[in-house]
Write a structure and sequence with these properties.
Blueprint (H helix, E strand, L loop, with lengths): L2 E5 L5 H13 L4 E5 L5 H11 L3 E5 L8 E5 L4 E8 L2 E7 L5 E8 L7 H14 L4 E6 L8
Parallel strand pairs: 1-2, 7-8
Antiparallel strand pairs: 2-4, 3-4, 5-6, 6-7
Length: 144
C-alpha cells in the first residue's frame, strides 16, 4: 500500500497540481490531507481531480482546518471514528490482513497538547492490529 500525508493545500492550484503529480507518479492508494483550509464541497471536487474512488472529510469549525482522506477501492476501508483533528480507519488489504490507520492533526494551542498526548496514548492502548499514524502533531517536543 502506498500512502502520503500532506499538510495545508489551501486550495492553491499549484499545490493541487503537485499533489496530482504525486498521486499519479506513486500510484497512491491512500492520501491524507490535514489543514486543507477548504470546505467539504471543494474536497469532493478534489477527489475527482485526483482520481480517487472515495473520500471522507471532517469539517473543522472555525478556521477551516479540515481533514480529508482519499482512497482507492483496491482495499476495504471502514471509518471507525473521527473528530475535528483525527480520522481513524480500519483497512483490510487484498490478503485479508487488517490494520489501522489514523490521520491526525495536532492542536495549535499549546495548552491542549497534554490532552492530545493523553488521547494518543489511550488510542495506542486500544489498537489490536498493526497501526500507522500520520501527520502533523504541531509539537516539536513530543509527548512525555
Amino acid at each position: 500500500m502506498k500512502v502520503i500525508s500532506l499538510n495545508c493545500i489551501r486550495g492553491n492550484s499549484s499545490a493541487v497540481h503537485n499533489i496530482k503529480y504525486l498521486v499519479r507518479h506513486f500510484n497512491l492508494n491512500l492520501l491524507f490531507l490535514s489543514a486543507t483550509l477548504v470546505h467539504k464541497n471543494k474536497i469532493e471536487d478534489l477527489r475527482y481531480v485526483l482520481d480517487f474512488d472515495s473520500y471522507f472529510s471532517v469539517d473543522h469549525t472555525g478556521r477551516g482546518d479540515n481533514l480529508a482522506l482519499f482512497w482507492r477501492t483496491t482495499f476495504n476501508y471502514q471509518i471507525v471514528n473521527f473528530y475535528n483533528n483525527h480520522i481513524i480507519v480500519d483497512i483490510v488489504d487484498p490478503t485479508c490482513s487488517l490494520w489501522k490507520f489514523t490521520g491526525y492533526y495536532g492542536y495549535l494551542n499549546g495548552g491542549q497538547r497534554r490532552a492530545a498526548c493523553d488521547f494518543l496514548r489511550q488510542l495506542s492502548s486500544q489498537m489490536n492490529a498493526p497501526w500507522c499514524i500520520f501527520r502533523d502533531f504541531n509539537d516539536i517536543f513530543g509527548c512525555k
